[in-house]
Amino acid sequence: SQQGEEDPQALSIQEGENATMNCSYKTSINNLQWYRQNSGRGLVHLILIRSNEREKHSGRLRVTLDTSKKSSSLLITASRAADTASYFCALGGAGGTSYGKLTFGQGTILTVHP
Amino acid sequence: DGGITQSPKYLFRKEGQNVTLSCEQNLNHDAMYWYRQDPGQGLRLIYYSQIVNDFQKGDIAEGYSVSREKKESFPLTVTSAQKNPTAFYLCASNVAGGFATDTQYFGPGTRLTVL
Question: Considering only CB atoms, which chain B residues are within 8 Å of A10?
Fold first, then answer.
């Protein structure tokens, strides 16, 4: 099954800066989700954007989706040290045959220095 | 508290042994999932179940087995046939594996180490 390709693999920034992570994919999707994982813990859902949406906001998070380019980006504004984690994109309904399943990317490791 | 629990948090297995990882949810979710995560990697789907008494293989089902006898429980057995079982195992659930894929809720994970 297809997988989201994330870049960068790792991102290191200072507190207060913005962090941008990107996810690209190959086939059609129903939705795209972003999750966060603190080291050694489970994943926490951040935001879901459906294929007919172009942009979504939640607090300091902004997600865009460009279905023509098959890509999404996650922007975290005014980052904090507590944002340090791995961030994963997950493809929902990829290829139109996988409703109910998610396919995860490799993740971006974000480090925010105080 | 509502949520997903996994036990144990750490599990050590000797070569040739079967072990069972527990996953319980009290969210009244229909669908449940098992993923494997290797260091520095994303999640790979092992098995999933969209309804009681039914389950499907994911991308890496070989060497694993599951059951779904109750809505709230989805145990995963790692058998001796799994050649490289050392990994972090995550259980998740969501409302239903229907037309619009919804948010998945994750447990805290079980770290399995083969000695």
Answer: none
At residue B77, the 3 state secondary structure works out as: strand
Backbone angles phi, psi at A105, to 5 degrees: -80, 180
End-to-end CA distance of chain B: 35
Q: Using the CB atoms, write b or e for B19-40: b if 16+ within 10 Å.
A: bebebbbeeebbbbbbbbbeee
- What length is written for chain A? 114
pLDDT (tens digit per residue) in B55-75: 999 999 999 999 999 999 999
Q: Do A101 and B101 touch (CB under 8 A)?
A: yes
Of B31, B103, B106, the CB nearest to A100: B31
Say if CB A54 and CB A66 are below 8 A apart: yes
Structure tokens at B81: 């046939």
List pLDDT tens digits, range A44-96. Answer: 999 999 999 999 999 999 999 999 999 999 999 999 999 999 999 999 876 55
